[in-house]
Automatic annotation (TrEMBL):
It comes from Paenibacillus planticolens. Signal peptide: none annotated. The gene is sinI. Residues 1-35 form the Sin domain. This is DNA-binding anti-repressor SinI. Keywords: DNA-binding.
Amino acid sequence: MDFEEYDTEWIDLILSARKMGLTMDDIRAFLRSPFQTTQKSQNSTENDPCMSP
């Protein structure tokens, strides 16, 4: 398969996700089940002082 056969939008999305710090496993997990939250994202606001009551 030549590079030209890949969808450039998907390549851009993957590269953007990688630049944001997501691992390939993070990306794969999201693509398999985009509506499930991960433990990482559920705890992301716990230590955020802006999100404290």
